[in-house]
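[agent] plan:
  1. take the single chain provided in the ticket
  2. run structure prediction with default settings
  3. attach structure tokens to the ticket
  4. add a short note for the reviewer (M.T.)
[agent] executing step 1
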Amino acid sequence: MGSPIDSWEGATAVFTGAHSSFSIGLSLLILVVVCVAPIVYSAIHEKAQYDKHS
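[agent] step 2 finished; step 3 output follows
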């Protein structure tokens, strides 16, 4: 069972959406939320636990 590709000459990569500022902005927003949300949540949780035990 061989590959139908005989040669890689002329092969190109296609990055769909990379030229769109909307998709880049959306990706950045998701990245910021995924990185900042756990920090904010843990700070709120830690403060609540500190207040509960002091």
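[agent] step 4 note for reviewer: The mean pLDDT is 89.
[agent] ticket updated
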